[in-house]
Design a protein that fits this description.
The protein is α+β, with helices and mostly antiparallel strands. The chain has one domain: Ribosomal Protein S5, domain 2, CATH 3.30.230. It is built from 4 helices and 6 strands; from the N terminus they run E-H-E-H-E-E-H-E-E-H. It has helices at 37-53, 77-91, 118-121, 150-186, and strands spanning 14-21, 63-70, 101-108, 111-114, 127-133, 138-144. The strands form 2 sheets. Strands 4-3-5-6 form a 4-stranded antiparallel β-sheet, sandwiched between helices. It has a two-stranded parallel sheet with strand order 1-2. The termini are far apart. This is Exosome complex component RRP41.
């Protein structure tokens, strides 16, 4: 991908993402090739999510690389990746429309749950991953992995949306504190 002028876009930046999991990240020590189906799917989701948030038109004929490697898989891998990548993109000074905050949600025993852990994910119930631009309430990515009756859909999206806004509050606070520390160190 690097150095490939044929893929460069003349009017905007190309967002290049790569998602991978370390072989020791889960309890089962399966060999995960670099291009397995799950990694390819997560890579595509990350790319779509950040293309919706980054102001790519400000950087024509350039490429923005986002590499994510999961070292410990405890559930919510995509969501943790999005939140960490959001902080990295902000720290790199790349302008975005808004923070991208992500959270998973599930429906277990008639109860919507937000921020699923590994045990809750493997129960087999319906799961949803939501990436949200919280200020404008725009959805960057919404993925559902199982069937769910439409009567329950609004409740599960509402739980995920509220959790995304809670994540936004934490991320925004951390960014502001970091900015104050850097400003104090620079003496401005």
């Amino acid at each position: 991908m690097r150095g490939s002028r044929s893929k460069a876009l003349h009017d905007q930046a190309l967002v290049n993402c790569q998602y991978s999991m370390a072989t020791f990240s889960t309890g089962d020590r399966k060999r995960r090739p670099h291009g397995d189906r799950q990694s390819s799917e997560m890579t595509l989701h990350l790319k779509q999510t950040f293309e919706a948030a980054i102001l790519t038109q400000l950087y024509p004929r350039s490429q923005i690389d986002i590499y994510v490697q999961i070292l410990q898989a405890d559930g919510g891998n995509y969501c943790a990746s999005v939140n960490a990548a959001t902080l990295a993109v902000i720290d790199a000074g790349i302008p975005m429309r808004d923070y991208v905050c992500a959270c998973s949600a599930g429906f277990i025993e008639e109860t919507p749950l937000a921020d699923l852990n590994y045990v809750e994910e493997v129960t087999g119930g319906p799961q949803l991953a939501l990436a949200l631009l919280p200020k404008s309430d725009q959805i960057a990515l919404l993925e559902m992995n199982a069937r769910l009756h439409e009567d329950h859909l609004e409740r599960i999206i509402e739980a995920a949306s509220k959790a995304c806004k809670d994540v936004y509050a934490v991320l925004d606070q951390v960014v502001r504190e970091h900015l104050q520390e850097v400003t104090a160190l620079l003496g401005k």
